[in-house]
Design brief:
Helices cover 71% and strands 0% of the residues. The protein is mainly alpha-helical and 63 residues long.
């Protein structure tokens, strides 16, 4: 992502657009996923960290 600071309104618009696109495919975003996106956009987390959390969750479940 670029270094431009986004306003809260811009961040929410990005998340809304992703949610809209996913909803068109029958997969609307949960509050949890929206929060993860928000954290990645604002720098509180990264794509790689969130991806690793998901992989670890399913490794515990399915081995």
């Amino acid at each position: 992502m670029n270094n431009k600071k986004l306003t809260e309104k811009e961040i929410q618009e990005k998340i809304r657009k992703v949610d809209g696109a996913m909803a068109q495919e029958g997969m609307p975003l949960t509050k949890e996923i929206k929060q993860k996106l928000y954290n990645c956009i604002t720098g509180k987390s990264t794509y790689d960290k969130e991806r690793e959390k998901i992989l670890e969750k399913y490794r515990r479940i399915y081995g």
